[in-house]
From TrEMBL:
Pfam families: DUF5935 (PF19358), Wzy_C (PF04932). It is a multi-pass membrane protein. Residues 1-185 form the DUF5935 domain. It comes from the Bacteria. Keywords: Ligase, Membrane, Transmembrane, Transmembrane helix. The keyword Repeat does not apply. This is O-glycosylation ligase, exosortase A system-associated. The keyword Transmembrane applies.
Amino acid sequence: MRDLALLAIVAWIVLQALKRPWIGVLGWTWMSIMNPHQLTWSVRSLPLAAAIGGATLIGLIITKDRRDYSLGRENIVLLIFMAWMTLTLPFSMLFNPSFELWKRVMKIDFMILVSMVLLYSKRHLMLLTWVLVISIGFFGVKGGAFTLATGGSYRVWGPENTYIEGNNEIALAIVIVIPLMRFLQLQMQAKWARVTMTVCMVLMAMAALGSHSRGALLAIAAMALVLWWRGKNKMVGAVVMVVLGIALLSVMPAEWWERMNTIKTYQQDDSALGRINAWGMAWNLAKDRLFGGGFMIWTASIFAIYGPEPDRVHAAHSIYFMVMGEQGFVGLLLFLTLFTMVFFTAGKLRIQGKARPQTQWLSDLGSMLQVSLAGYAVGGAFLSLSYWDLPYNLLILAVVGKRWLDRKEWLHEKEEPVVYVPAFIKKRFDKKKRVPSL
């Protein structure tokens, strides 16, 4: 049943993308972030994302929808980063596996650029945020409930065969999305909606803790610190966060505390020592090779050459050392420049959006984007999600939001419903609302 439901949804998205390619962008984002096909039985191998992406590109060409091809600093740096990864590809130490991952990364980054061409309105930004929240929130809320039900005795894992399959990766994705949930909550008027979102955010935090990821714990701490700093009443905010933190941590079992304590005694933890050895390998490789080693370098043959301890083979589990080893120091510089720019663009939204009531939502968005980026910067130091879509979707929200603000869109943009209603449904609904003549 779920297979048929997914196929019906994808078919609808494909048809709509041909006429309204921005709907295709949202559908592509949903498929790539949530991977709903991995929750089905028989359609996992079908190229559903490719179908949506192809329809979106066709719609981009044939429709008269508004498009924005302007290049800001983030677009330019992303294009340069893509060009650098393409330039380094022929110099990859393991070309065949590197080529496969390069194709995947190029598809992701290309669709990020397409998204910035097709999305332009407040409605688009709100819908994109909802797609991101629902895509990760599905696993986070479920994982939080699971953690509460089991007392944290079992780890929370992500969907199989995806970027976020591991406990560390799903935890970082959850941490990034929690501030976006807070942004949506700030826009809500109904009390029941705000309360529901609060419950969901608490469950998301519980799921991140339930992953038993030490990086996630540090990311949550960084995120909470930025949230507290952004708050108006810091004393009340501090009390609320301390009480909530104590309540969440009191659920976790003794083995969770033992694992978190290894942060202080990392010299005795084999996993931590493996990561440090991988970081040393990435450093040695980047010093030796201008173009880095290419994708998929975390193998015994390369550790034998560059690893401080050649026999200790381990993934980098760090966005920084991952990019450094794979793309060299130039690639790392481009990666850091890109997300530093996004952080400061979000800061401009936070400050400039306060100027008028119509743009206050952008101030909220900019503030929460900075909180998400803080979580990504800290949690990413211990987790491998350098090329995944979600952080780059934060870039889309910041860039499109800044365009909306700079062009004074609030002066002429109509307030539209957040949920798109197909024309034939809207027509039938309007007929039912008509008052019969006397």
